[in-house]
Amino acid sequence: MLGFWYKEFPQYPKDHKDFWRTRLIAHSLLITTCYFLVLTLLNLFYFESYDIALIDALGLTVSLGIYTWFNKTANVNAAAWAVTLMVVSLIMMFVVSVGGHAHSLFWATLIPPFSFFLVGRNWGSLFSAVAFTICAYLVYLQQQQTVTIGLGSLFNLIEVSLAHILIFRFYEKTRFSAYTRLSIRNLEIQHLAETDKLTGLYNRQKFDSELSQLIAKNEVSKASNCLLICDIDYFKNINDTYGHLVGDSVLSEFANILKNKMPKSSLIARWGGEEFTVILSGTSITDAMAQANELKEYVGTHPIVNISLTISIGLAPIQTGDTVLKILERADKALYEAKNNGRNLVCCSDNNLTITAYPDYIKQLNLNKVNA
Q1: Of 103, 112, 121, whose CA–CA distance to 168 is shortest?
Q2: Residues forming beta bridges with residue 276, ordered by sequence position
Q3: Catalytic residue among 219, 253, 274, 275
Q4: Are 216 and 225 in contact (CB under 8 A)?
């Protein structure tokens, strides 16, 4: 509604440290302009206090002058000092001129929120201390005097109370906005900390953390969970032949294939280089072997970035008593076996720590069922 008053300065975007100072300067000048206009009219025509009306008119003129100058120069520091000095000097001039009577001392309570925010805690403390010392002296002079509460006292209380509400409403808005932006930034930082920049998958740090938690849950639930390590065969040749940019495109596209082909509940991460890990939760070793082989067959029949390639996969079920290191060693051993036997192969490290290639594993499993 008041967007016309709050000018946007390109040099002070929302994440700039001085953004809210520019807002407070505009906010303060809007309040002082409105207040001084109303007070000038009241003192001029209602109270017929021409000397007070002159102070208010001076405040109105100075407020509009600072506002116009600030919009042209965008000098935050100078404007902050100008607003602070104007507020402090005019408030104290008014308080002293009326001798601290008619509850005018309440106006001094507006000095700390203005000065602390605009010129910092050191100068804010100094301005506030000087103002309150003067107020204390005026109260000292009023000892044993009869206090008359008139219409001027009522107006002073109402005006100061409204000013406080407006100022602290603005402060709460800045605090809430800063908290919201900080929360968003923390989420962004967390995402960057656990995500591989090239592929958009989780990185190894996030993978190790999730695997550790899954192992702990596995001890309690005894659910079937498996780990896959996928390696793009002869990836170095792709970099050497087509260049690293093409190699990066292959890695990125392969990451997309993993996300599309693996179950939605899977946790997929780039383990390093051309190696990727997949945690299959709630999946038996037989199903995991079948899914790994389907992935291998798909990659072998669908060129990536117009390059035909194959993958080797090492698979290991998560067992009771496993650690992150143990399960990774078994899956890595299975992957080594797949690569050592010609690549484009899925191998599994089963419960007896023996290496079995798919579909030999399935054949042996079916044979055991028949013999049983």
Answers
A1: 112
A2: 230, 270
A3: 274
A4: no
pLDDT(368) > 50: no
Q: Identity (one letter) of the amino acid at 348? A: C
Angle, helices 324-340 vs 204-221, to 10°: value is 110
E-strand ranges in the chain read 226-232, 267-272, 275-280, 311-317, 346-349, 355-357
Tell me: cis bond preceding 10? Omega within 30 of 0 counts: no
Q: How many CB atoms lie within 10 A of CB 174?
A: 16
Work out the pLDDT band at 82, boundaries 50, 70, 90.
very high
Place of tokens 């929302």: 14
Q: What is the pLDDT of residues 124-152, one digit of tens each?
A: 999 999 999 999 999 888 876 666 677 77
Confidence check: pLDDT of 37 > 60: yes
Nearest-angstrom CA–CA distance, 291 and 271: 19
CA dihedral 55, 61, 63, 64 (to 10 degrees): 160
Residues 6+ apart with CB under 8 A from 223: 217, 281, 282
Greater model confidence, 8 or 311: 311
Q: What is the 3-state secondary structure (H, E, C) of 259-283?
A: HHHCCCCCEEEEEECCEEEEEECCC
Active site residue 159: no
Compute the distance between CA of residue 107 and CA of residue 155 in angstroms, rounded to an integer. Answer: 11
Confidence at residue 173, expressed as pLDDT on a 0 to 100 scale: 76
- Joined tokens for residue 178: 């800063």
108 closest CA partner among 127, 81, 126, 122 = 127
pTM of the model: 0.57
Other CB atoms within 10 Å distance of the CB of residue 337: 19
Other Cβ atoms less than 10 A from the Cβ of 220: the count is 7
Helix ranges (DSSP H) in 151-203: 151-194
